[in-house]
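Email to the structure team, subject: Defensin model.

Hi all, the expression group asked for a predicted structure before they design truncation constructs. Nothing fancy, just the tokens so they can compare against earlier work. One-line instruction: predict Defensin, return tokens.
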Amino acid sequence: DELPEETYQAAVENYRRKRATCDLLSGFGVGDSACAAHCIARRNRGGYCNAKTVCVC
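Reply from the structure team: attached below.
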């Protein structure tokens, strides 16, 4: 029941993007805003950084 390699790589890349949006920009105080913009760009209503600094859309 393993994922195909392409699907796995896409999932890993998506996780990295979510993490980087909150982690890297939190020092500038714009983590949540950047996360919301990231989610809106992906056609979601918005988003926020959770306690583990992962962007949740």
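Residues 5-56 form one domain. The chain has a mean pLDDT of 74. Ping us if the truncation boundaries need rechecking.
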